Fold:
Amino acid sequence: MNYSAYQDLKVRSLEPGILEIVMGEEGRLAVATANAHAEMARIWLDVDRDPDCRVAILRGAGKGFSAGGDLAMVEEVTRDFAVRARVWREARDLVYNMINCSKIVVSAMHGPAVGAGLVAGLLADISIAARNARLIDGHTRLGVAAGDHAAIVWPLLCGMAKAKYYLLTCEQMSGEEAERLGLVSLTCDEAELQAKALDVARRIAAGAQTAIRWTKYSLNNWLRMAGPTFDASLAFEMLGFTGPEVKEGIASHREKRKPVFPPEPKDF
Structure:
C-alpha cells in the first residue's frame, strides 16, 4: 500500500504487520486543518485494504496528541454551505470508516487530545493514554452540539451520567481519570507510552487474525446500533454552525476569554 499521497499524516511501517500513523509535526500540536481532517477520514480505508497491515498505531507528534480544529476552517464552516457539507461527510466517514476497518487500531494519547484526533483516539480498538494526558470534548464550549464521536461511544464506554457531565461541561479529564471511568483501555506514564502501544500491537499482530477481526466486527455492532444516535448528533452539530452561539464560541477562543452566549430563542 502506497501512503505517499498523505501530507498531514505521516505513515510508515514500524515492523512487519505494524503500521504507525503520526499526526502533526515534532514540537507542535497537530491541528485539524481542512486537509488533515480529510486525511483522518480516508486513512482507515487504506489501512483496511493494506495487505501488509495487521495493526495500526495512531499517535501525535511533539507536544500532544491533537489540538482540535483549525479556527479558520471552523469559521469557514459557519459561512459556506459547501464546506459545511464536506466537513459533515468527513466527520461521518471518520467514525464509520474506523468502525468498519477490519484491522486493529491502537491509539497512544499524550498531552492534549481534542477534536478529530480525540475521535480516532477513543474509537481505537485499544486506547492507551498517558496518565497526564488531557482529554477534552469542547463542542458545547464552542457553541455547537457534541457531534463527532461523542454520542455514539461515550455512554457505552463510561456510562450516561459521566458522559453527560463531561460533554455538557467540557471539563477536561486526565488519562488516569479516563481509565478509571472506562473511557480508555489502559494508562501508563508518558515516557512509556510508545513502548506500551508497540507491545500491545505486537501481541495483537501475533494473534489469530481472522478470529481477532471477526471479534472486532461483532463487538462493533454495539456502535452500529447507535448509528442513528450518532447521525442525529452530527446533524445537530452542523446545524449549530449556522447559529449565533458558535460565533461567540469562536470569538471567545480567539480572544482567550470565557464565552458569553446569547439567550436562547423564546420558542426553543
Notes: The chain has one domain: 9-255. The longest strand covers residues 53-60.
